[in-house]
Each structure stands twice: as structure tokens, then as C-alpha cells.
Specification:
The structure is a homodimer.
Chain A (H helix, E strand, L loop, with lengths): L1 E4 L2 E4 L4 E3 L3 H5 L2 E9 L2 E3 L1 H14 L10 H14 L6 E9 L17 E8 L4 H6 L1 E7 L14 H12 L4 E5 L5 E4 L3 E6 L2 E4 L10 H12 L4 E2 L5 H4 L4 E6 L3 E8 L2 E2 L7 H13 L7
Parallel strand pairs in A: 8-9, 8-15, 12-13
Antiparallel strand pairs in A: 1-2, 1-7, 4-5, 4-6, 6-7, 9-10, 11-12, 11-14, 14-15, 15-16
Amino acid sequence: MRAYLNGQYLDKADAKLSVDDRGFVFGDGIYEVYRAIDGELFEAERHHRRLEHGLEALRLPRPTEADAGTLHGIALRLLRENGHDTGEATVYVQVTRGAAPRAHVFPPADTAPTVFVTTYPFKGFADLRRTGATVITQPDVRWLRCNIKTVQLLPNVLAKQAAAEAGALEALLVRADGTVTEGTHTNLFAVLDDELRTHPTTELILPGVTRAVVLELAHELGIPVREEAITEEELGQCEELFLTGTTTDVMPVVSCDGRIVGAGVPGAIAMRLHDALVARMGGVGAR
Amino acid sequence: MRAYLNGQYLDKADAKLSVDDRGFVFGDGIYEVYRAIDGELFEAERHHRRLEHGLEALRLPRPTEADAGTLHGIALRLLRENGHDTGEATVYVQVTRGAAPRAHVFPPADTAPTVFVTTYPFKGFADLRRTGATVITQPDVRWLRCNIKTVQLLPNVLAKQAAAEAGALEALLVRADGTVTEGTHTNLFAVLDDELRTHPTTELILPGVTRAVVLELAHELGIPVREEAITEEELGQCEELFLTGTTTDVMPVVSCDGRIVGAGVPGAIAMRLHDALVARMGGVGAR
């Protein structure tokens, strides 16, 4: 598999980082995951805008590769070299504050950021979508800047692992006050009293690209939406529950912590929105 | 400078990580910093116990290097090879969940953890200690498992950078409810109504080795101690304020957010405790 690291295209096995990389010692970096369909990046602009936001929010040095056209070119070349330019794939981009002797303060201004890009093959969850997914809840112990797509992902790792060990697809994260924020790598939507509900874009959730598209699609379909978080208690009262994400699309949830959600089958609103998303993707998301 | 990486002793420039290292992509790892004085590790057992706790808390695979004797041997060899076996130095140890294709869930059980060890020269803050340090406050936006010494350090980086830009040594972190927890890489003590106060060892602070030693010393010196956090409001009422840490020793604070603390000079209790710590270190901490 080929990768791009700091100006070079390499076999991924040869793409090596300094042990002083601030991504490694501090988690001092951001990342982005793009969906690629037949060599085209879906919603590339929104992903790129979020990357730009992350660079600014953390005051990361802006690498030349952050230019939309440049990054697009790197992604397309890697998709081609990895044989991922037909069918589905993902493009992974990570930028850190570079390698410098370990000190919490920002490194000298001339420290080059680390830029790593690679692609992965992708296969969607079509089979699971037919039956619907199960989820569990986990305490949301993340930091309070979840709106920035950083590599501070250890709490997500631990919650996702707990889900996997429970045989569930995803863990829903619940703050101490009972607010359900989102999944470990997905946003959460509920249908409650015929209204679509999702956490507003505060610092407690990642502003998902698929979340934004789904809100647009809901608007187009005339589905009433309220951007207000549901509570842990309301989880048990939902007519529908579903996840959204770049690699998850729209995924209906039929069971949460072992309790059946709604009618226990994929919800009608979730499936309408999934179909609309697939149409927006040009049909391939159905795979 | 020499380093140890996954079984090999190398020039640090040749110690290279996979771009798939989970330390880099998820911040999925822990670290430890030991103080070395003339080639001896100060309070090695306490540091080692904390490392063991981190491995268990995160269910990291236990590397053979986590054996206390083995780790000690690696540290001593690096101190020697780097000429850090006389005078003062620090030993840095990091363990991550290893390199594996990116997925939040734990990697296959046979994935070897990454073990990185190196040493740094160290010079204390004796000059600053004479006048006392200035600090600022910053919102404590960290995750809720601060008791584990992980590399989820981006909030610490940002707060420490804010302190540096304000000309301060350290940032004190304040939770939304007004509780002052600790510094970005130090614990915090206050003297209030002739009582020594510090945050209890909950999941909101790192259980500092120097914090534990200072509590022992306070006990020996007959200084009354209460392990109860101070509030942001109480910051302005303290008779003394001081930081403790492996590389900070006891550091009196004379100014916080531009307001003078106590009498505006290093406090008597802080200096008594610092002197006792220096004695415990065999006198070298005074440098």
C-alpha cells in the first residue's frame, strides 16, 4: 500500500515517523477521513473545511498540502497507485505539529508539520443495515473540544472496544448529566414524537459531514428536525434511532443496551434518509 | 542521543515509528518521566507502579520491558550512553498499543506494543524558585481519566502554550464548576488557613509522584494537610500556592492571573517542603 508522508510517496512500510513526532508524544494533531467513490471524493469541500477549522483551532502550522487542490491531487494519486480509484475507498489524512524535542509548548516556528495521507479499501455495512445495528451506552469521558477532529481518540477507542466486546456496532456516549452526545465515530439521530432529533453542533460533538448532509436531506424531504440532544432516558422512548458517519452512512439502530428500539426493525425515516444519501452519492452507497 | 525502541538501542534519529502506530493515530498509549540523579532513578518504584497502573487501566499489552528490572536496565544503559549518568537527567518511557491497520477497536492480540525509552539532560529551576513563579488559569477541558498518564496531552499542550505566551511558568486548570485541579504537568498545593490543601487523587488529576512525596514530607514535618480541592475563588485567598512535579520539584507561585499570591514572595511552607524534598533526593535537587 502506498502512502504520502511529508512530500514523499512511499510504500507505507517505508513511511516512518520520528519518535519525537508530537502526534506520538502528545496526540497533537488532527485527521480527516474522506469517502472515495470511483476515484471521486464525496463532499470533499465539507471535509476540507473541517480540516482547515482544525488547523486554525489548534493553531497548527498550515502545511502546503492543506491547499484543497494540492490535497486533492495527493489523494487522487494515492487512490490510483493503490488501485482504489474504482469502487469504494477511504482517504485518511493526518497533520501533526511535527517532530521536535519533547516540550509541551509549541515547537520553534520553523518546525515542519507532519503530513500523512493514505487510502484504505472500503466495504459498507449493507447486510447489517437490513437488520439494523445494536449499540451500547458508555460514559462520555472525552475532552471538551470534541468539535475539533483531533487524534485525542483514546476514549473513543475504549468505548468502541467495549461495544465490540458486547457484540455491538457502536457505543453511544452519555455525559454525566444524562445527555447523549454521539457515537465513538458517528453522530446520533433519534425520531421522537415524529420529530428528528440530534445533538446541536456544540463543542461536545464532532460536526459530522454525513450529519450535515442528512440534515439537508431531511429538510428536502420535509421531515421536521430539532437540533436538541436526547437524554439517556429518552433513548428508551425513541420511535427510531440511527447513526450517521462517513463510513457508516445512515445506519438504523434496533437495540440499545439490550433493549429493543422502536419496533425493533430499521425505521422508515432512517431508511428514507439512507436512500436519499445513496442517491446523493450517485447510487454507490447502496453497496 | 541514544534511544531504545522495541528491543533495539539506536541513535534517536534512526528510531523510527510506523505511521500505523496507535500512539500516532489514536494517542493510544501511556508514558512516564523519571528523574535521574547521578545515574540513579528517584522514586523509581512509585513511577513504575504508575506505569503498571496505566497498562492495566487501558488494557495495554504488557511488554517484557515493563518488568521493573528490565526497564531499569534499559534506563541505566541509555543514561550511560548519553552521558547522563552523572548530574541530573530525565528518563522518558512511552508504551503504545503498537502498530496495526487503523481501526478503533483493539488490534489483534499478537500486535506487539511499541516501547520507546530515551533520556534528556535536565536543569532545574533554582533561579526561578528564588523569586517564585507566575501562573495563569485556564479552563480544564481534559478528558475524565486524568489519573492515567496517557499521551492524550493536547489540552495540556494548549494550556501550557497559553501560559508561555502570558510569560507564566504554568497554567492552573479549572473545571467548569470552579474546582482547581492541577497544572498541565504539575500538581497544585495551597496553604489556606494554615492548612495544606491539594486535590484528592480522583480521576480528575494525575497522582503525582512528587505530590505523594510532598504529602509524606508534610506529615513528617507536622504540617496539617487536607486533600480537598481549592476553588477558583480560593485562589485569591491563599497564603501560599505551589506546584509540585518530577521536573518542577516544589515551585512556589507568587502571582496568579496577574494578582499577587500571599505576600508575593516564595512561601515558608513551600520552601520548607522543597528543602525536605532536596534532602530526600540527596541534595542534588537544590541545583
